[in-house]
Specification:
Rossmann fold; 8 strands; 2 domains; 9 helices; binds zinc ion; two-stranded antiparallel sheet; 242 residues; four-stranded parallel beta sheet; alpha/beta; globular
């Protein structure tokens, strides 16, 4: 957007706010209109904060000594080469992601995607293309969109949509242990053709990483040179499989 257009939008903002009022998802205050997405600037600053540091050098899990790697990375359970989460998984972020995924608040892709892009730029990622974690087609039809795809679209990198698909609906994994999730994910994805590139996987919330590790396994078997992971936040991590 050029400077002239930006100025015009700023002049129009109060009018647009009046015509199309948007309440903040978190505090019900009036947000500053469609331009920002349904999150007021106060909540955006207060709720969207980075994860506690230091984090695991490889996968980004918080609570690891500076410069160290976590148990999952040490023992080879982490299959992807590098991963980071953009945000701390606090109550407001949990609520925002819920609204984003289940209540059609797709405009949240804007503020959330901004944080994702910031995280991508701050860390040594080097992908050739982005692969949003696919939903099962039936689930995507029901929801009308894939939240990971909406986030990926904000990164300004080439997106590979057809390269990998979910061939089995793995259902909700809430309440499963880490091992149950690993078993549940086995064979869930299918790759079409050779990948031969460095891939960035994008998803909303990472829990145990079973989904991302299985996707990594499939992509690498089809020639992916490197697989990196970028998520909004990590819930629990290794110690808390819920
Ligand atoms: Zn607010
Ligand atoms: Zn790690």
């Amino acid at each position: 957007m050029g400077p002239a257009r930006r100025t015009r939008y700023r002049v129009l903002d109060p009018i647009l706010d009046l015509l199309f009022p948007v309440d903040c998802v978190l505090c019900d205050r009036r947000a500053s209109g469609w331009r920002r997405g349904p999150l007021c600037p106060t909540c955006e600053t207060a709720a969207l904060v980075g994860p506690a540091s230091p984090v695991c050098e490889r996968c980004g899990l918080p609570g690891v000594a500076a410069g160290g790697v976590c148990a999952a990375c040490l023992t080879g359970r982490t299959r992807y080469d590098f991963g980071r989460a953009a945000l701390a998984f606090n109550d407001p972020v949990r609520q925002l992601v819920h609204e984003f995924k289940y209540n059609d608040r797709v405009s949240l892709a804007r503020p959330l995607g901004r944080r994702l892009k910031g995280c991508l730029e701050r860390h040594p990622f080097g992908p050739d293309c982005v692969v949003p974690v696919p939903l099962h087609p039936r689930r995507q039809r029901g929801r009308g969109y894939n939240q990971a795809e909406l986030l990926a679209a904000r990164l300004g990198l080439p997106i590979e949509r057809g390269v990998v698909r979910r061939r089995r609906d793995t259902g909700s994994q809430t309440g499963m242990t880490r091992h149950q999730r690993v078993v549940n994910m086995r064979g869930a994805f299918e790759c079409r053709g050779r990948v031969e590139r460095s891939v960035l996987l994008v998803d909303d919330i990472q829990t145990t990483g079973a989904t991302l590790n299985e996707l990594t396994r499939v992509l690498k078997r089809h020639g992916a040179r490197r697989v990196e992971v970028l998520t909004l936040a990590r819930a629990g991590g290794d110690s808390n499989p819920a």
